[in-house]
Amino acid sequence: MIPLSVLDQSVATAGRPQGLAIRNTIALAKACEAMGYARFWVSEHHSHGSIVGTAPEVLIAAIASQTSEIRVGSAGIMLPHYAPLKVAEQFRVLDAIAPGRIDLGLGRAPGSDGRTAYALNPLANERPAQFVSDVRDLQAWLTNSPLPDGHPFAAVKCLPHDTTTPEMWLLGSSDYGAQVAAYFGLPYAFAWFFTDGRGGREAIEVYRKTFKPSDKFPEPHPAICVFALAAETEAEALRQYQSRARTRMLRDYGVFAQLEAPDVAGGYDYTDAEKARLLQLRNNAIIGTAEQVAEGIDKLVRAMDLKEVAVVTWAYDEEVRIESYRLLAKAMGIAPRGQTLS
Q1: Is residue 77 situated within a structural domain?
Q2: How far, CA to CA in Å, does 262 sit from each of 239, 242, 250, 321?
Q3: What is the pLDDT of residues 67-109, one digit of tens each?
Q4: In angstroms, rounded to a whole number, what is the distance separating the alpha carbons of residues 188 and 177?
Q5: Rounded to the nearest 5°, which phi and psi values hold at 315?
Q6: What interhelical angle do 290-304 and 200-210 show, nearest 10?
Q7: Considering only CA atoms, which of 105, 145, 308, 143 is closest in space to residue 220?
Q8: Which residue range forms the structural domain that includes residue 18?
Q9: Is position 243 within any domain?
Q10: In the prediction, which pLDDT does 112 show?
Q11: Under DSSP, is residue 321 helix (H, G, I), strand (E, B) or coil?
Q12: What is the CATH number of the domain that holds 41?
């Protein structure tokens, strides 16, 4: 059994205040800690009609203060928006709040459109070109290691220092992030849910072949993040999935919509092309009973020899989402914290 974790995106639902999505994320983290999940990650998106998680560092602080054992982190901080020193400072403070439990997942994508990226950082279009050096500087500041000789900021210190250090990850949906992760000897997670798996196996293979051992990770540590939804019956899982399927299809058109109730999302008069696309999305997702979902995840783990899996679940009703994670944890043999499974 490999560690099973959670990625939450604070998804907006139609007819409800957006702030509720943030509060639901915190509540879900507490529930998933009790269920025995290894990590709870939150994403970063901006000016996005479907996802309202815009400040992962703030949300991580809230979650860390209300949990005690589960690792908490970002999936990810979109580094081109920020100065590496500031990110390092934020996560050193987070590590002081929850020593030894903080993960810093980094991405190169903007998590937004070009205009929004520019509003966040007028140099946003230039920063991706220096992503590798930014990762290098961030890692040095995060671990209190020296910057390269002659570095203009070599004398700058990142505070606070303590006995523990956040764990860095590289995240991506192409083989670029895989190569950067391999170069620095960091764990790597592929956003399988974002590409419907396209390019995932290739990225993991590139990561393994080019990996350079580091002190903490002498061997590659590949992971993926998948969309999954479990229910008591396959029919109910498919019904609940209609909410996610519609928003995912609309994304193809550049429309980022709030999550609608499943019967509403499934009640539209779709064209034949849209029906075909919905069927394709359904076939690429991991949906069904807990046993079916666990089997689908296990097949991916075995096919790519993964070390971890994170699960993202969208559902219109929060109770449905929590129940999906509960059913999956049980089917995957994860013991609730404080208990052992016979």
Answers
A1: yes
A2: 6, 5, 15, 13
A3: 999 999 999 899 999 999 999 999 999 999 999 999 999 999 8
A4: 8
A5: -150, 145
A6: 40
A7: 308
A8: 4-233+286-331
A9: no
A10: 79
A11: helix
A12: 3.20.20.30
